[in-house]
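### Sample
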Amino acid sequence: ELGKRAPRWIRDNEVTMCMKCKEPFNALTRRRHHCRACGHVVCWKCSDYKAHLEYDGNKLNKVCKDCYHVIIGCTDSEEKKRKGILEIESAEVSGNSVICSFLQYMEKSKPWQKAWCVIPKQEALVLYMYGAPQDVKALATIPLLGYTVDDTPKSADLPHSFKLTQSKSVHSFAADNEELKQKWLKVIHLAVKGETPECQNELQGN
C-alpha cells in the first residue's frame, strides 16, 4: 500500500528522536520532517529523498530513505543488520505488552523526568524505557529479576512512587495516581521473582 494511500502521520510530540537513524531531535540542529509515504517523523538527513506517490497524483514527494528504497524497488542491506537490545520500537512492544504507560523516573540524584515505560509480553521480566510512545529506540532497559521493591514513598518523593533496588543500583518511579501505581507493582512484584502474569494464572488454575 506504500504510496498508494495517504499514511497516518505520527505527531511531532509522539517522538523524541528520528524514527529512522534514531538521532535525538533538538531545537537547533534537528528539525522534524514527515515522510509523505509512511507518515514517520524523520530528521532532514533521512528525509532527503523524493519519490512519485500514487495517492498524490504521482507527484514527487519528500520520503524517507526506507520508503524510497521500497518504492523504487531496491533493498538496503543496512536494514539486515541485527538490531541491538535497545533498538526495539516502542510501538512494537507497547502494542503487545503486559503493561505500558507514562511514569516519572529518577536515577540517583538527577531530577524526575517523564518516560514511556513498557513491559513487553515476550520479555515480561524486562522494563523498557522510552522518551515517547512512538520512539524507535529505548533509552534504557532494566532486567527486573532480583530487584527489591520499596513501595512506600519518602517525604522527598512524589506521592505515588516506588523504588527498585539491587545492590548499588536504585531506580525510582512515580505514577500519576495510586491505581496506576498498583497495576505496575502487581506486574513488577511477579517479575522480580522471575514470574510472569501467565505463570501466575496457570498456578492459580492448578
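The chain has two domains: 1-79, 90-203. This sample (FGD4 protein) is used throughout the tutorial notebook.
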